Amino acid sequence: MAEMRKKLRTVGRALARVDGDAKVRGTAIFPEDRALPPGTLHAATVRAPIAAARILRVDVAPALATKGVVRVLTAADVRGTNRFGLKERDQPVLASDRIRGASDVIALVVATSAAAARAAARRVRLDLAVAPLLEDPERACDPDAPVIHPERAAVGAHPNVVATATVRRGDVAAARKRAAVVIEGVYTTRWVEHAFLAPEAGLAVPEPDGGLTLYVATQWPETDLRQAAAALGEPLARLRLVQQAIGGAFGGREDVSLQILLLLAARATGRPVRMVWDRAESIRGHGKRHPFRIRHTLAADARGRFTAAVIDVLADAGCYASTSRIVIANAVAQACGPYAVPAVDLSGQAVYTNNPVTGAFRGFGVNQVCFAMEQQVSKVAAALGLDPATVRARNFVRPGGRLATGLRVDACAGLPRTLTRAMRRARRRPLPRATAEWVYGRGIASASKNVGYSFGVDDHATARVTLSADGATVFVGAAEVGQGVTTVLTQIAAETLGLPPARIRVVSDDTATVPEAGSTSASRQTFVAGNAVRLACARVRRKLTTRAARAPLPRAGLSVTATFHAPRTQPLTAADARRHSYAYTWCTCVADVAVDRATGVVRVLRVVEAVDAGRVVNPTLLRGQVEGGVVMGQGYALLERLDVRSGMPTTRGLDGCVLPTAVDAVPMIEAIAIEERALAGPFGARGVGEITMIPVAPAITAAIHAAIGVWVDDLPATPARILAGLATQQCASARQTPGNAERTNVRARRSTGATSPRAKPVTKPRSMLRRSGVTP
């Protein structure tokens, strides 16, 4: 065990992903790849054909008569509570009396083949009474609005209100009066599909002891099983989940999808049951990013220092609550971004509609409010004739200072460095000169993102470490969803134990053997699970030291379990919002774009992103997060717009989601790591999973304005919207008297700003993505 005493410095190295070899070679087992036990049956769902109706009758006789059909399950077959949900159990396992959205499952067909199950599902007859449809969240609280969940009539507020959040601080009215400029804006964002590569699939197997084992890909195994146990009326101890390789998640696998249905079918038939969704059902069956409408007022003095903000957020929760309660709280808490605004009136509301359910998606409500806030910041700079970077730097929260909610932050010294480093790198390459076809612009945006569970939730993780002569095995239930947590935990364990990474094995895939570590979401696993692993490894090392003088290592090895609890937080309230989160990451993004004035087409030429997520455990993984976040943010800014009509997604495949492809992707992405270490994180690390996407959209829209003088306040910034903005701009110019051009009124409610000067020419943009290394 001499290696225990050797300083290896594993943290900070670009260690190859420990799961990379299996994925590259194709030996990783995804849910659809799993070998099927003999006698496996196949399941298919009967989905709601419309988004709002009363269910009068479900006739399963024609389906039962189909060759190969074994069972057809309806709500009557749900022995436990026919409700599930992450925060509110308001979604039926199998709908019985009413249809609230197109994702509703009314029946489940189980047959000897997938083809037979699908054919029989089409033969289930539904007798429905069409109900009034609620599509517009602005109308959700009207007295005559259709009520999506009548059982909520006694909650006090309008029954269509899922959740509200409010923060009020300082004297907003007085601050507005002192302001030199007051900018008002209304911003809208659309539904966005997660578009992970592997659609939902799984297998449920009855065990000889009467238990059930589920093989799926999920972000939160323990919560899946808790919801399933309640629905099945089974003790939690009788359910086991074995995690399969995950083909992407981004929040879309945080909610239950087919897990309960598979377990229900396996228990009803006593045989293994498999189900695989095609892309159309995946898009219909899992939640989306929330569409937001944000009414935003930002006031500033003549030097660009913010004096007040009034922000009202309306989120479309869709037909079920999912995580909307926490999303709207997070949106309100982060509505002013990384800035110290002394007086605020922040409010948010999520409402039910018959639209697709919305839930967790990378950024968790912060992307939408960051877009609005950063547009407003850029407009303040334009109205005052100030440099946008200067305005941001003057308003950044400082160590020991308070964010707009009153939350004190200490680990934020890296925030201004993200701005200076990103701008310095961007300026090394000037923009091209305008041509007859293309004009160019550069835009910036900064962002903050809380790490981990907030608002009073006890954020914790448990790890067990066993040390033997062969090395160490780390047991921790942190789902690997492609972001690299298994590699990060390997490096943390190796660093703490003083062992080579090759002698560390991380086990995280079986609820029967690994302790809980919570969800792989909220950019939390490096911080929370990483600290649990570090604590357990440190205790193992101490144990080994104390027994080394008196006894050899036992055959079974030394085993220690440790639980890490993150700093406590408090719920977000209007009266006191000073402790709603315990850690933050910071980011500044600089985007260069080319705009075709004739067609409205935008090409993103280059993005420089500087991130302060504390100590970088693995530079390659951070670079991957930046590159993935930038391309996802590019899609959010310019392309992605899931079309929903009559409460239903109109697309049956990814082609209708308008995703960026390899041809569209930003050809040059540069990542800069700012390592301002937080004492509470393992070796000073925090978390980087979400922050890299958040500022990309407003940086791109700011660059569009710098190029053509048009503000695009509704995402995505499509060619049609850009051309409409140019047409409005031309009409306004035509109304001006020659020699008496309209001047910007810095006290005006809105400001058009001014185009940025164009710089010297450089090489033309490339069409292929160039990977760029992380710099210290």
What does this structure look like?
The chain has 776 residues and is an alpha+beta fold. It contains 16 helices and 27 strands. The strands form 7 sheets. A 7-stranded mixed beta sheet has the order 3-5-1-12-9-10-11. It has a 5-stranded mixed beta sheet with strand order 7-15-14-13-8, sandwiched between helices. Strand 13 and strand 14 (306-318) form a beta hairpin. Helix 8 packs parallel to helix 9 and helix 9 packs parallel to helix 15 (696-708).
Key terms:
776 residues; alpha+beta; seven-stranded mixed β-sheet; five-stranded mixed β-sheet; disordered C terminus
Secondary-structure map with pairings?
Layout: H1 20-25, E1 41-47, E2 53-59, H2 61-64, E3 69-73, E4 98-99, E5 105-111, H3 114-121, E6 125-130, E7 161-169, H4 172-178, E8 181-188, E9 201-206, E10 212-216, H5 221-232, E11 239-243, H6 259-269, E12 273-276, H7 279-285, E13 292-300, E14 306-318, H8 324-333, E15 343-352, H9 366-384, H10 388-395, E16 401-402, E17 408-409, H11 414-427, E18 438-450, E19 460-468, E20 471-475, H12 485-497, E21 504-507, H13 525-547, E22 558-565, E23 584-596, E24 602-612, H14 619-638, E25 644-645, E26 648-649, E27 669-673, H15 696-708, H16 719-735
Parallel strand pairs: 1-12, 10-11, 14-15, 20-21, 24-27
Antiparallel strand pairs: 1-5, 2-4, 2-6, 3-5, 7-15, 8-13, 9-10, 9-12, 13-14, 16-17, 18-23, 19-20, 19-22, 23-24, 25-26
